[in-house]
Amino acid sequence: MTDLSQIVKAYDVRGVVPDQWDEALAGLFGAAFAEVTGADAIVIGHDMRPSSPGLAGAFARGAAARGVDVTEIGLCSTDELYYASGALGLPGAMFTASHNPARYNGIKMCRAGAAPVGQDTGLADIRALVERWSEEGAPEPAATPGTIGRRDVLADYAAHLRSLVDLSGSRPLKVVVDAGNGMGGHTVPTVFAGLPLELDALYFELDGSFPNHEANPLDPKNIVDLQARVREVGADLGLAFDGDADRCFVVDEKGDPVSPSAVTALVAARELAKHPGGTVIHNLITSWSVPEVVAELGGEAVRTRVGHSFIKEEMAQAGAIFGGEHSAHYYFRDFWNADTGMLAALHVLAALGGQQGTLSELVAQYDRYASSGEINSTVDDQAGRLAAIRAAHTGRPGVTLDELDGLTVTTADWWFNVRASNTEPLLRLNVEARDAATVDRVRDEALAIIRG
User: Can you tell me the distance from the alpha carbon of 366 to that of 263, in angstroms, rounded to the nearest whole number?
Assistant: First the structure.
């Protein structure tokens, strides 16, 4: 039997195909998803990876065998699947491995209204059923099997996004978009159609082998082409999407990366203008600038753990209008509390196009501190290294510690967070300070302990 602990992660299913999982297992996941959600109908989408159509089809047949009617929306971005789940009121499954290499694939699952399915909200139950059926054999089919039909929601998805951000008064903008051969190449042309934008398209051909670069814009080497193109053509900005196009990264007119924290603060400001006094969620890795901007504009900032299931849960509980993460995931109340990089991109375009300055000038007010970015260290003993950092800072004057997610050490002039990876023997370090020299000093001190 396949070891599901290798592929069932905290928020999704993800592994190498067919080494770790295949269509037979996808069929069991479809049956288990139907069982756990108790739904009469579900919606399924997939990305451009060669294995995605087959896995999605097997999942659909597994669910239909349990009496569930299936709507297949075919090629889509993950946030397009969330749109379908929200607009149709159906649980959904998206077949993608996001930014992972070509040999990987996975499933992101949600309940009706794009509500997350994580370990504590159904994924553990799905895993248990798949493990049982893998050993005992698949469950008996329902007396009346469900139907499998097709529906195209791309135009409706695009129209919904455009209804949330008004670009009608924007000045014309030249924008370079790097789709990384991922699903942005499918969604961007439809979403941007008719807007006052001159689009310069990089790598829009759907190709799950990722022939140009990995579809992971969080890694600086994967936005080099975008940066060069922005400078070459004199664009106003550049946008880069990951493989399933649910995350969007921004570079300014100089080709310099715009911090996702600055984007979070910018979008928060726009959402608070529409919803005065609203609540904005941010994870604990985002910059100090985010809660500062929210407070300055009369909103309430709520700090939470890293991870979309935590953000979405807090969004729902707090009735938040918006949420952002350092990894360029952006969540909107107007989008069923789900994450959509495309909607964040439209907000950036509207903010830039609504004034005459450059993007670097616009975001300067939201980018107030120096930061290290995320630094990963391979360690033999995650808990031991974290304990060593805690011991080194406990009792120091002016230092506070908290363990909301990993360990965060904070002073008046700097903070850092160290978190253990859930899937690899890594510790992840993020440092922020009032100046770059302090970032370097605090980073080096922390790494000396982590790697000691």
Answer: 8
pLDDT in tens, 6-38: 899 888 999 999 999 999 999 999 999 999 999
Cβ within 8 Å of residue 322, ≥6 positions away = 267, 268, 271, 278, 280, 281, 330, 331, 332, 333
pTM for the predicted model, two decimal places: 0.95
Terminal-residue alpha carbon distance, the chain: 39
Residue with tokens 């910018």: 266
304 close to 274: Cβ distance less than 8 angstroms: no
Q: Which of 98, 259, 309, 327 is catalytic?
A: 98
Q: What is the pLDDT of residues 90-126, one digit of tens each?
A: 999 999 999 889 999 999 999 999 999 988 899 999 9
Interatomic CA distance for residues 262 and 293, integer angstroms = 10
Q: Which two tokens stand for residue 38?
A: 């108790």
52 in catalytic set: no
